Amino acid sequence: MDNLLELIILANLVVVLGYFADKGAERAYNFLKKHYRQIRIKDIIGRVEDNNKNLKIHSLDRLEDFYEPENIYILKNRKKLFVDFPKDLKGQLASSEIPMVFRQDISLDESSDFKDLEEETGIENLSQLIEKHRRIAANLFIDKFKKGLISSNILRSGILDFDFGPRYDSYDRWVLGVSSRLNLEFFKTDYFTNMVFKSIYQELCQKNHPISKVKDPSRIKKYRAFLTSFRINTFLIVNSRRGNKIVFGKGSRDSKYPKDKCKWRTTMDKFLMPTEHHRNNMCILNYLYQGLDEHLGLKKNYQDYVMEEKFYDLFLDRENFELGITSTIKFNGKFSNILTGKDPSEASNLKLDEVRLVPFNRKALGEFMRENKDKLTTSCLYALNMVSARNLILPPEISLNREANELYYFIG
């Protein structure tokens, strides 16, 4: 009896030890798998960033991992920056059905002469440049108004400050339960003011001013008066039985930006507006889904199909001196499950004329890009590169040399 009891106890002990041995092996395997994935992602991103130089887009915060939506803090601020429309030209906008609203000159320190911006940026003649480009931008604004491209001087959000919390990778997230943080602080501005400062920026670039080469985040903040817009570039990814598909959107023929008309872009490419962050630390997801609804038209129960939301890269678009962030939203099931209509082209109130679902793999993306050569916006190409890297897909335009072939073999 005693021998039988000892045998039972020993058998149970073997089972328990085996269980913990299996669990330990499983945890070790998961750790190595995540660590190896991180190495692969880092390698692909390195290749991608070399290619991004041709797009004139610079990554300010390149995470191999991603930001959790709740760790992106949108902070409240009362500062404003407005440049008024020339009084002698306002009469040319009198036919507007909606009263055209412009705001009086006011700088970030609440003065009206913009001398604070001269001191902050080191551009000694900035006040004179504002006067010069006020009229240049006004004539462009009037031209767009007469062509029906704009009907109001909408409010926009400029970047007052941004900073990064502690950097963590997927190991820290998995083992320690911590993740990276991003703080964004905005000031209030408008579309016309944005046009004025973008016009000044183009002149400064032509003169090879340091603003055209700035890379370091601390130096970029010196020119925050020029950061009069913030955009979010989001790709929608649809998970189905046949694999993931990535959704491209074609810009409206009525776009305010002629170079982007009828070009393929990310599913959503939207500028942040002050009304969307009037509360301190407003969740960035509210802004993201509002933008998707404007572009695609979402059903009220769309959240039933959401699998995950991820934010990746804070970037500087050098062409217009704009900050933005890349992101993805993954939905489960058929694309039609989340749309109010069968196709965005059927609705006149949406911002996309067409959408295209492309299998999310290197071969299919290569075919799509060859078919639409020169028909993708630079911001779309940048976001596609960075999102593909996080999904272990080497972008099609990057050649597969011997080393890359070996990498791609492991990626599958």
Overview of this protein structure:
α1 (2-52) packs antiparallel against α9 (378-390) and α3 crosses α5. 37% of the residues lie in helices and 21% in strands. The strands form two sheets. Strands 1, 5, 6, 7, 8, 9, 10 and 11 form an eight-stranded mixed sheet that branches. The protein has a three-stranded mixed sheet with strand order 2-4-3. The protein is α+β, with helices and mostly antiparallel strands and 412 residues long.
Which SSEs are present, and which pair or pack?
Elements: H1 2-52, E1 57-61, E2 72-75, H2 115-121, H3 126-146, E3 155-164, H4 170-176, E4 182-190, H5 191-206, H6 217-220, E5 230-240, E6 243-251, E7 264-265, E8 268-271, H7 284-296, E9 306-317, E10 322-332, E11 352-359, H8 362-371, H9 378-390, H10 402-411
Parallel strand pairs: 2-4, 5-10
Antiparallel strand pairs: 1-9, 3-4, 5-6, 5-8, 6-7, 6-11, 9-10
Helix pairs in contact: 1-9, 3-5
Inertia-based shape: globular
Uncertain spans: 173-177, 276-281, 402-412
User: Strand percentage, roughly?
Assistant: 15-25%
Most strands sheet: 8 strands, mixed
The helical percent reads: 25-40%
Distance between the termini: 57 Å
**What is the ordering of alpha helices and beta strands?**
HEEHHEHEHHEEEEHEEEHHH
**Number of separate strands:** 11
Query: How does the helix and strand content classify structurally?
Result: alpha+beta
Whole-number radius of gyration?
A: 25 Å
Mean pLDDT: 79
| Tally of alpha and pi helices | 10
